[in-house]
Amino acid sequence: MSRLAGKTAFVSGGAKGLGAEMARAMHEEGANVMVTDVLEDKGIELADAHENMQFMAHDVTDEAQWQAAIDATVKTFGGLDVLVNNAGIVHDSTPLEDTTLEQWRHVTAIDLDGVFLGAKYGVRAMKEKGGSIINVSSIYGIVGSVAQAPYHAAKGGVRLLTKAMAVEMGGLGYKIRVNSIHPGFVGTDILRDGIRSAVEMGAMDGENEAIEALTLGTPAGRLGVPRDIANGIVFLASDESEWMTGAELVIDGGFTAQ
Ligand SMILES: NC(=O)c1ccc[n+]([C@@H]2O[C@H](COP(=O)([O-])OP(=O)(O)OC[C@H]3O[C@@H](n4cnc5c(N)ncnc54)[C@H](O)[C@@H]3O)[C@@H](O)[C@H]2O)c1
């Protein structure tokens, strides 16, 4: 369990859900981990249970807080090798024609602007020594669905921001790899939030029916569990993927293969 020995990793939105599992998986492989989130209690609880894991309160929409969080990571652990831009929210399901500019900006501020800011300060911290930046997009950054336009736009933006960064890093001679990861349906709060709002607006019949439909629509025959995604994160964080940059790692039980 030492695929990440000697590395320092940063996970935004890591207090719960996929981010917490990513933090645990990278820690198991020997990484020092900085977890950040707006959820302080859960973040502190997670970090306190692991040696060489720290938590810092951090809102990804705030540029000054990004600078402070990256600076604190470098100060605490002596560097930064892996940045996982994971924090995200789902749009409160609304048809496009009824979506307000405020709703649009709320989702894109966290899901897209937050990734840009993380990338900016991550690059500054990594450019001398190199590293791996992993941007968490979604299968919804590849295909569309009903009543989630801001989420799709943000996640699609993350997908192409990743490719632009990969090319730019190479062009500048920085040894920074940048890849995106695209989870399918995994049973965390964000999936439950999406289903609940879709049921409320009448786009889905009921919460149990929605879970059944998503499971049936997934060729692998089950929804994902957080470890399915965290395994991909460990791979992209490690030197095993050193020739990968600008790539999309889709982990979705085959959903987008159809
Ligand atoms: N679960 C899925 O089915 C699924 C599928 C595709 C992509 N994703 C993506 O995976 C990522 C993690 O989602 P999850 O499934 O763990 O959901 P989650 O709701 O359990 O976790 C999201 C985390 O982001 C944090 N967060 C929200 N706004 C923040 C902000 N402004 N600043 C800092 N942190 C903030 C939340 O507090 C929470 O801890 C998200 O980017 C999501 O879009 C999830």
Structural class: alpha/beta
Mean pLDDT: 97
The CATH topology is what?
Answer: Rossmann fold
**Architecture, CATH level 2?**
3-Layer(aba) Sandwich
Number of strands: 7
Could you please describe the fold and organization of this structure?
It contains eight helices and seven strands. Helix 1 packs across helix 8 (226-237). It starts with 7 loop residues before the first strand and ends in a 7-residue tail after the last strand. Helices cover 47% and strands 15% of the residues. The longest helix has 26 residues, at 101-126. It has a seven-stranded parallel beta sheet with strand order 3-2-1-4-5-6-7, with helices on both faces. The protein has 258 residues and is an alpha/beta fold. The mean pLDDT is 97. The chain has one domain: NAD(P)-binding Rossmann-like Domain (Rossmann fold), CATH 3.40.50. Nicotinamide-adenine-dinucleotide binds at residues 12-13, 15-19, 37-39, 58-61, 86-89, 110, 136, 138, 183, 185-186, 188-191. Nicotinamide-adenine-dinucleotide (NAD) is lined by residues 12-13, 15-19, 37-39, 58-61, 86-89, 110, 136, 138, 183, 185-186, 188-191.
